[in-house]
Amino acid sequence: MLPPWLPSKVLYIDLTRKRWHVEDRSDLFEKWFGGIGVAIQLYKEESKPDMDPLSPDNPIIFAVGPLSVIFPMASKVVTVFKSPLSGYVAESHAGGRLAAAIRFAGYGAIVIKGVSNIPVYLVIDDKGVKFCDASSLWGMKSTETIGRVLREVTTGSGFRSIIRIGLAGEKLVRYANVNVDTYRHFGRMGLGAVFGSKKLKAIVFIGRGSFKLDRKYLAEYMKTYKEIYELATQSPALRKYHDLGTPQNVLVLNKLGALPTRNFSSGRFEEAEKISGEYLAEKMLGRRIACTGCPVACIHLAALREPTGEPYFYKTTFISYDYELIYALGSNLGIGDPEGMLRLIRIVEEYGLDAISTGVVLAWITEAYERGIVSKSETIVEPRWGDWKTYIEIVRNIVYQPNEFYKIAAMGVKALAEKYPEGREFAIHVAGVEPAGYHTGPTYWTSLVVGFRHSHLDSAGYSYDEKLAKEGRRDVTPHEIAKYIVEEESWRQILNSMVLCLFGRGIYKEDVVVKALRSIGINIDVERLKEVGRKIWIEKWIVKLREGYDPEKIELPKKLFETETPLGKIDPNVISQAIREIKYMIYEHIEKTIRG
Hints:
- By secondary structure, the chain is of the alpha+beta class.
- It is built from 23 helices and 15 strands.
- The chain has a 6-stranded mixed β-sheet. Strands 8-7-12-9-10-11 form a 6-stranded mixed β-sheet. Strands 13-14-15 form a 3-stranded antiparallel β-sheet.
């Protein structure tokens, strides 16, 4: 039985009828903890295998976990929905203040279904849900302005978090994101378009509660908290996230030959130094901020000083940057001008677009234009590598969709490749999802095919490739790849059910997670914990297979096998054999689950 201070209530919201109700779902939280474990079960209950991702039936599910906010780096929220980008069930994570707001409003999870007849925003607190007219916000360009307006019109004390979509979500761009507290996002897989399809502009969360622990656990909790806090603040691995943030990867990957450049044509960028974490920290870093409950402060904001048009008057804009943005809107577009790159990042942010997908779409358009596959009559402008000003114009066109070409571009690289089959070989996507920036070797690309969210965060396959490169190995076998991915992804289901920031995965080892749970009244041993992780992984696959996903039918673009990686050119047979072995393991586990 769950301790009474742990959240197990689920808030159900019907946008069509403007109604809500709360249910105690201890049955789910006792078995699956929270986070992705509970979210995938709620998705199974609320979804249909053949539903349209932009239909009212598509549920949006948010979930927190037993460690959320009460331990260092337990700062994330999981959301599950059907992706309009891939056409399959999707998972996305975000930090900021959201986990604290949901938890202290008294909820373990939130389920949103239906479609509003008018633009609407929600105010969610411990008393329930208010449905508010968002007609005046609909069509507003800047996600930052929307957040500022909502902060002013919704008053109240407590932990407050505001999530919202921009114009991209309203226009149903399939890779639109949801902005969280200005500098965080549910970035991947198109949640912004799902919000837009439901006429849901924003949600304001207000948590007024607190965490009250039974006195008999207090001493152990305080001791465990201190141990984890010291690990988080003294770890050299986490120190780099504070000092340089994820952009420290730019020079590391460039040296390895794994930094995607000009639409994955190369693994090295000649101007990497000028967009590196070191350069940005020395020349442009303005602030560091942290998610609630995190002592690391990995969020880096560049201070961009721009003239206003009047003599000696300037405006300073803070722009969040990280490795994935630098890859997608920097090296992969051939942009070596740091200020130009930041301006492009800012416009992508304002419109509410996923930066990774946007950058890969821009890269495909550039290469297709160079090869004569598309013409200026379609692109309107002339894209050139490194030309950030023209890329800003293209981003606007993707959002406003002035012609048929940009209507297709708003659906992602896969859609462009289907319309222009001559460009299929350099359309970089996995199951319709544009990838993160790691051209490291076969483990990474295998992990994207068999990963639930087609993300580098599924099992960090890139890190295994990097390990092999440092060892001087190029002979990785399909079995090694399969074994690594299955073990790593199974364990990450536990981390994502707690819900922990994966930057802290080096701290939250198996024994530390067990100790943290025990200190708040949940007794479980390591083997049982790992077993739950494997079961969650299989539960996710049952859902994805039900929707028709078959990893063996995923075709990777030819270009990936032509560009060198740190392990040499990738052998497609190694990937296909690894995928086949993982698929066999999945079916074997499913059969055991059914028999059990």
